[in-house]
TrEMBL record:
Region listing for Disordered, in residue ranges: 248-267
UniProt similarity note: Belongs to the ABC transporter superfamily.
PANTHER family in the record: ABC TRANSPORTER ATP-BINDING PROTEIN (PTHR42711), ABC TRANSPORTER ATP-BINDING PROTEIN NATA (PTHR42711:SF5)
Descriptive protein name: ABC transporter related protein
Domain of life: Bacteria
Native species: Pirellula staleyi (strain ATCC 27377 / DSM 6068 / ICPB 4128) (Pirella staleyi)
Signal peptide residue numbers: none
Length: 267
């Protein structure tokens, strides 16, 4: 359902010059699966997810969502996905009902379809009591429910959650994770980015461990544990990242030594 090949993204950064945020990642995610992108801050998770949702253009490589190409068929791609992040905007002057209705209309749902869908979503996400609450007066948890309803209103086959539990209290975060699992059980393809090991461990069917724009390892939790002979995901994660850092450091040192030799500054 999601097919990503050799995807790269470079930013022109004033301070750092050309900065490579994605260095050629490839992965596939399927219906009925939660695919986790696990990585520390700056790993490139958001860049990858923004490309999948057509907000960003890749520098090179390709990505298809439910058969549609993000570069050549962006509008069709957008109909295939719902996107939830920790800071999806909820308009201050709209009520929960108006927000979800507004997005349903944007997706072209008929009045009847929208009414049925909104009833279903307000039941499922227990949103009836916040139906008439204005965005400005909502708690973070309420806002997150509205964001989820907004992402689900057109019943897309693919759902993308980008660090969606950040800033939520433990009860609201749990409810969100339960909803994510239910979406998978309903046959959706879910991409779930997080830096929280426990979330990835509990929820994801496959995990890509990302660091500085690379996928360092990929597989089901069992596959990762057996390949790296390490049961603890956190430990496995640290081992992979420290190996990478050491390799990068020694490459940097050799490059610097070679440069110095060339310049005649080194014995
Ligand atoms: N518009 C931009 N211009 C320059 N650099 C950027 C831009 N957007 C992201 N970056 C850089 O690209 C790298 C990857 O960022 P990205 O947000 O994709 O990572 P992430 O894994 O989602 O991290 P986080 O959890 O912190 O959001 C970071 O070093 C970031 O500073």
């Amino acid at each position: 359902m999601i097919h990503v090949r050799d995807l790269t993204k470079s930013y022109a950064d004033i301070r750092r010059g050309k900065f490579v945020a994605l260095a050629g990642i490839s992965f596939d995610a399927h219906a009925g699966q939660i695919y986790g992108l696990l990585g520390p801050n700056g790993a490139g998770k958001t860049s990858a997810l923004r490309i999948l949702s057509t907000v960003l253009r890749p520098t090179s490589g390709s990505a298809r969502v439910n058969g549609y190409d993000v570069l050549t068929q962006p509008s069709l791609v957008r109909h295939q996905i719902g996107f939830v992040s920790c800071n999806t905007a909820v308009y201050d002057r709209m009520t929960a009902f108006e927000m979800v209705e507004y997005f349903g209309k944007l997706y072209g749902l008929s009045k009847e379809q929208l009414e049925a869908r909104m009833n279903e979503l307000f039941d499922r996400l227990q949103m009836h009591e916040i139906r008439d609450v204005l965005g400005a007066k909502m708690s973070t948890g309420m806002k997150q429910k509205v964001s989820i309803a907004r992402a689900l209103v057109h019943d897309p086959p693919v759902l993308i959650f980008d660090e969606a539990t950040a800033g939520l209290d433990v009860l609201v975060a749990r409810a969100l994770l339960k909803e994510v699992a239910q979406l998978r059980d309903a046959g959706k393809c879910v991409i779930f980015s997080t830096h929280i090991m426990r979330e990835a461990e509990r929820l994801c069917d496959r995990i890509a461990i990302m660091h500085r724009g690379h996928i360092l390892a990929e597989g089901s939790l069992d596959e990762l544990r057996s390949t790296y002979a390490e049961n603890d995901l956190e430990e496995l994660f640290f081992q992979l990242i420290s190996k990478r850092e050491e390799a990068a450091e020694s490459t940097g040192k050799s490059a610097a030594t070679a440069e110095a030799r060339k310049a005649g500054n080194s014995p």
